[in-house]
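Here is the promised in-class demo. Please do not try to memorize the tokens; focus on the logic of going from shape to residues.
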């Protein structure tokens, strides 16, 4: 008799929850409003997800009692019941990743997860779900409580749909497993192992292996793939046993993070362009690239384990664009933000005194120069950009004389010559030189 009324009340409750909106549902009442929390783990920066939605959909908890890194450096993800609601957890790498091997070291009973619980280890693009591309390792029975149901899944997504998929059974003696996604330009290899190993000691350690060369299943680096790890509830349903869940990720091997703050010298040296950048702990070495324009083909200049590099090969007075990448055993990072740099024209000015009062400046003419601007000022460290040149010469002229500059103790003069390049018209300043006079008083 009361069933229609019960259904009506449930419908009213659903309408009320929808009216509250996703933000009100996303925040446990004893937690702060969702913010973008970041953590440091395995030398990388990760965003802890606070926003509601798929997969599931789920509510996601980003507080330290839901997601944390312990004193041994292991990452903990949980499914928790907070103030009457179930919350999943997810972390996302701050930097996008690149071709290479991504190997996750997992501690947890992935063969005995509740039918509604899903563990995901994956590479993913498009956080707004507009055009999903994804390389997945997942452990779930997708609501199936049959003990014989497959609980391991390798899946590739292309434009919001499954491109390829492979499923397998997982049966463990312990809780340590290793899972790899080796993303390469023409193939993606998946592997799961018993224990923590970069390579299986023998075939008995292999849980599953699978490869795909389907071109639709292989993302490109410019698709902006990031690394994700999540623990969530299928369709947002509670665990059938009503128990909270915790999975530990002890380590991650992956291509390095992207080097930051690349700086290339702008005419500071006539024998090189010097580069520097901030090191990343996940890189064992760095590759340095150069191009003649932002969109031009990149040339590999060399490798270094340092965070500086000298490029001694540029032409004078030509602006080049530089990038740097990190490298480790798993692969190479995405390119850093670019910076431009250029090599100054060598300018070494000498000074001579002629006729007792004339000052002559001279230098070696350089083929990269199309103009020489000569400056003079009574202050030794004057700014030539604030002055009008005292003279402008056209090569091959490479000397200039100031008449009657010497001999007056009340006046001193200082000089600098700038070569203006023919290619990019950079101004390459010379050394500073000058003349000064003083009077000698007999007996002093």
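The designed amino acids, position by position:
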């Amino acid at each position: 008799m009361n069933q229609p009324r019960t259904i009506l009340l449930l419908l009213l409750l659903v309408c009320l929850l929808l009216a509250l909106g996703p933000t009100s549902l996303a925040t446990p009442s004893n937690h702060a409003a969702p913010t973008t929390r970041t953590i440091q783990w395995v030398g990388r920066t990760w965003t802890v997800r606070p926003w509601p939605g798929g997969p599931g959909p789920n509510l996601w908890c980003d507080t330290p009692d839901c997601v944390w890194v312990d004193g041994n450096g292991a990452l903990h993800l949980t499914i928790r019941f907070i103030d009457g609601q179930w919350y999943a957890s997810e972390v996302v790498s701050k930097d996008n990743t690149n071709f290479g091997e991504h190997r996750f070291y997992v501690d947890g009973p992935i063969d005995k997860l509740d039918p509604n619980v899903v563990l995901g280890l994956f590479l993913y693009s498009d956080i707004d779900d507009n055009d999903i591309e994804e390389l997945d390792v997942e452990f779930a029975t997708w609501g199936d409580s049959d003990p014989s149901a497959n609980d391991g899944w390798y899946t590739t997504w292309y434009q919001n749909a499954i491109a390829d998929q492979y499923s397998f059974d997982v049966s463990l003696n312990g809780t340590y497993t290793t899972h790899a996604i080796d993303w390469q330009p023409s193939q993606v290899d998946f592997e799961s192992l018993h224990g923590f190993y970069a390579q299986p000691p023998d075939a008995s350690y292999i849980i599953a292996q699978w490869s795909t060369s389907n071109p639709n299943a292989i993302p490109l680096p410019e698709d902006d793939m990031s690394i994700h790890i999540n623990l969530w509830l299928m369709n947002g349903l509670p665990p059938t046993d009503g128990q909270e869940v915790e999975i530990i990720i002890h380590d991650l091997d992956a291509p390095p993070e992207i080097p930051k703050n690349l700086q290339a010298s702008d005419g500071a040296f006539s024998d090189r362009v010097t580069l520097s950048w901030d090191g990343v702990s996940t890189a064992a070495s760095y590759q340095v690239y150069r191009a003649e324009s932002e969109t031009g083909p990149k040339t590999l200049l060399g490798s270094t384990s340092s965070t500086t590099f000298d490029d001694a090969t540029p032409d004078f007075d030509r602006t080049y664009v530089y990038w740097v990448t990190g490298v480790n055993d798993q692969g190479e990072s995405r390119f850093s933000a670019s910076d431009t740099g250029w090599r100054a024209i060598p300018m070494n000015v000498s000074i001579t005194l002629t006729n007792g009062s004339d000052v002559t400046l001279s230098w070696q003419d350089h083929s990269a120069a199309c103009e020489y601007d000569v400056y003079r000022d009574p202050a030794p460290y004057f700014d030539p950009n604030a002055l009008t040149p005292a003279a402008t010469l056209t090569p091959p002229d490479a000397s200039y004389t100031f008449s009657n500059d010497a001999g007056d103790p009340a006046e001193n003069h200082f000089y600098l010559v700038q070569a203006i390049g023919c290619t990019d018209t950079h101004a390459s300043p010379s050394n500073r030189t000058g003349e000064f006079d003083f009077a000698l008083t007999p007996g002093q």
